[in-house]
């Protein structure tokens, strides 16, 4: 089969398309999926660059969707998965024609969710939904700051916070992205290159700050994220798109009794029951139209490097996908 392998860490040039990879073996509790779409995410860049160390070599990709073509002997037919089921997959190695994944990380796609949308929401969608349900349980009437509100995860966070009844302040870099953020539902949009974010949040909240700040940016905004979090509020720092946050003095949290959370999706959906609960909720939001998927770009395996570079450039909006031929 074809797939993208990483043999050494570095920039996007280390991504290598190989055409003679063995189709993965099916473990006892695994499901073999013929991949149709795979999502492009910052975690792919972190792995490739060595920020998140991986055993070398490895196959790229952490989410995808496609059709079940094989089922392990300990996976129950009918009640779990059958040949031909359309599924979403949360596992390593989705940038390939086939991936074998533990059934605990595979979810059936309802008829109302397309295979393309399935790949778009598996990692980013579940990340966003667990941020607003587990990292900080967003409640009606709260004020939430979403950094990078026009991006793939940011756009989902805005929609979810609005669905849950919050007032949303979003940050973006350009007027074009401001329009995207408003379409997602932002009540207020801050162009962070033109306006001081802390001062604007202070003005919009009468000096109180936000009940929660949801930021995947990392180092570049961490001080502002903390300053924008109100007394007894929560700062959820879930990503490192600008670099890893440097060590800091924990006493900085005591100024407003802020709760700091640095979560990962995998630790919120470790148990099958947790995965099922959040997936059913998320797919329901997509099916009902409460959360809409915005496609920001479609690529092929041989242009994955460009896709990752485009994502890192901050020039894209919405979800980037790879069509696996």
From TrEMBL:
<dbReference type="InterPro" id="IPR013149">
    <property type="entry name" value="ADH-like_C"/>
</dbReference>
<dbReference type="GO" id="GO:0005829">
    <property type="term" value="C:cytosol"/>
</dbReference>
<dbReference type="GO" id="GO:0008270">
    <property type="term" value="F:zinc ion binding"/>
</dbReference>
<dbReference type="InterPro" id="IPR011032">
    <property type="entry name" value="GroES-like_sf"/>
</dbReference>
<dbReference type="InterPro" id="IPR036291">
    <property type="entry name" value="NAD(P)-bd_dom_sf"/>
</dbReference>
<dbReference type="InterPro" id="IPR013154">
    <property type="entry name" value="ADH-like_N"/>
</dbReference>
<protein>
    <recommendedName>
        <fullName>Probable quinone oxidoreductase</fullName>
    </recommendedName>
</protein>
<dbReference type="GO" id="GO:0035925">
    <property type="term" value="F:mRNA 3'-UTR AU-rich region binding"/>
</dbReference>
<dbReference type="InterPro" id="IPR047618">
    <property type="entry name" value="QOR-like"/>
</dbReference>
<dbReference type="InterPro" id="IPR020843">
    <property type="entry name" value="ER"/>
</dbReference>
<dbReference type="InterPro" id="IPR002364">
    <property type="entry name" value="Quin_OxRdtase/zeta-crystal_CS"/>
</dbReference>
<keyword id="KW-0521">NADP</keyword>
<keyword id="KW-0560">Oxidoreductase</keyword>
<dbReference type="GO" id="GO:0070402">
    <property type="term" value="F:NADPH binding"/>
</dbReference>
<dbReference type="Pfam" id="PF00107">
    <property type="entry name" value="ADH_zinc_N"/>
</dbReference>
<feature type="domain" description="Enoyl reductase (ER)">
    <location>
        <begin position="10"/>
        <end position="322"/>
    </location>
</feature>
<dbReference type="GO" id="GO:0003960">
    <property type="term" value="F:quinone reductase (NADPH) activity"/>
</dbReference>
<dbReference type="Pfam" id="PF08240">
    <property type="entry name" value="ADH_N"/>
</dbReference>
